[in-house]
């Protein structure tokens, strides 16, 4: 009797996903940099939030959410981040979040991406679905930032410049 071993061909591996995510974070940082400071905190279209409010959401989700996965300690979703109406402060907090994300990613070791996970104690799914949510949510809000920049007559960074 002949035995055949099944192999799984990965579309993207753990390191490639992380590099992809960090590329998106780098691009979002460039979008923040492109905003005129006043409009970053005041400009909005219709019922959409300011880009600063959207960045607050992104900061509330990515590093704390990954920290929750890496450490197993429940994170609190707190979007009320005080940027002091300063783009410099926002970028500083963005960079600190990037450092935290790097640290937590290194702590994850051989985490099972298919393992059930309840993000922030309220969003059920898997580790993988949580990670994709962190990334997809950032892309979504960055797209809104692009619309704002265009409405302000500011050329946004190239979307592929990651």
UniProtKB/TrEMBL annotation:
The entry's keywords: Metal-binding
The organism's place on the tree of life at top rank: Bacteria
SUPFAM superfamilies named in the record: DinB/YfiT-like putative metalloenzymes
Record bears the keyword Metal-binding: yes
GO molecular function: metal ion binding
Sequence positions that bind a divalent metal cation: 141
Protein name listed in UniProt: Damage-inducible protein DinB
Source species: Croceivirga radicis
């Amino acid at each position: 009797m002949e035995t055949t071993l099944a192999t799984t061909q990965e579309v993207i591996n753990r390191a490639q996903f992380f590099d992809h995510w960090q590329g998106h974070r780098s691009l979002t940082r460039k979008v923040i940099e492109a905003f005129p400071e006043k409009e970053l905190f005041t400009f909005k279209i219709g019922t959409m939030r300011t880009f600063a409010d959207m960045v607050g959401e992104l900061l509330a989700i990515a590093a704390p959410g990954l920290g929750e996965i890496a450490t197993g300690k429940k994170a609190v979703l707190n979007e009320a981040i005080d940027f002091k109406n300063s783009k410099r402060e926002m970028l500083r907090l963005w960079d600190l979040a990037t450092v935290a994300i790097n640290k937590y990613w290194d702590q994850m070791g051989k985490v099972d991406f298919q393992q059930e996970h309840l993000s922030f104690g309220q969003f059920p799914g898997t580790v993988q679905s949580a990670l994709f949510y962190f990334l997809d949510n950032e892309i979504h809000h960055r797209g809104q930032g692009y619309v704002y920049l265009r409405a302000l007559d500011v050329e946004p960074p190239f979307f592929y410049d990651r």
